[in-house]
Specification:
Layout: E1 13-16, E2 20-23, H1 30-37, H2 40-44, H3 55-63, H4 65-70, E3 74-81, E4 84-96, E5 101-108, H5 117-132, E6 137-143, H6 147-155, E7 159-170, E8 173-183, H7 184-194, E9 203-206
Parallel strand pairs: 5-6
Antiparallel strand pairs: 1-2, 1-9, 2-3, 3-4, 4-5, 6-8, 7-8
Length: about 210
């Protein structure tokens, strides 16, 4: 994975995979984001997405992205298909510099479930975190009531590391949190075995 660097202005990259384009969210995405994220099933399966999810919620969330990226705290991508620039979901990486560790989060709009998009986007995040940011470890968590998210983590080479029982309260119910992780050495070994069809995005361009 290669890209030109701008030493004066640090800009978030746009990542191109086999079927997807991961790019920074734009203000023009507000209506589409609210449309997808306002489905109660999305909020039910995620920790931080509220319900209802309004255009104002979307606008305020997008407004946080640039500052967090510039501070090296988070990078968030709109997930789009090659033929349509409208988002179909989101994927991101929170960065904990003191431990050289990242945490992946993702969701897809309900019409795009069960098509492998989450796996493809999350795999691109592994490549970005390990190859671009040189992180030592990347982890991810999911509610025990959302096993499909765990299958995504397993599909990209993560190992289930444990369960925090009744760890999160969501809508008055306590949820078990299942934890997955992968070390950079494990990622590199997996990419070597898989060759060109491994975790790396096919190309990375610089974007706004």
């Amino acid at each position: 994975m290669s890209h030109a660097r701008n030493d004066t202005v640090r800009r978030q990259p746009t990542i191109v995979t086999k079927r997807l384009v991961l790019r920074p969210f734009r203000n023009a995405d507000v209506s589409r984001l609210a449309e997808l994220a306002n489905d109660r099933r999305i909020a039910q399966k995620t920790l931080l997405i509220p319900h209802p999810y309004t255009e104002q919620t979307a606008r305020e969330w997008i407004a946080t992205h640039r500052g967090k990226f510039e501070r090296g705290e988070d990078v968030v991508f709109a997930v789009t298909t090659g033929n349509d620039e409208e988002p179909i979901g989101a994927v991101g990486l929170s960065i904990f510099h003191e431990h050289n560790r990242g945490e992946i989060g993702y969701w897809m709009g309900v019409p795009y479930w069960n098509q492998g998009y989450c796996t493809e986007a999350a795999r691109a995040m592994l490549a970005y975190g390990f190859e671009e940011l040189n992180l030592h470890k990347i982890c991810a968590n999911h509610f025990a009531t959302n096993p499909a998210s765990g299958r995504v983590m397993a599909n990209i080479g993560m190992t289930r590391e444990g369960v925090f029982k009744s760890h999160i309260e969501k809508w008055g119910e306590y949820e078990d949190m299942v934890c997955y992780g992968i070390l950079k050495s494990e990622y590199v070994s997996g990419v070597s075995r898989q060759g060109s069809e491994g975790c790396s995005p096919s190309r990375t361009d610089m974007g706004e």
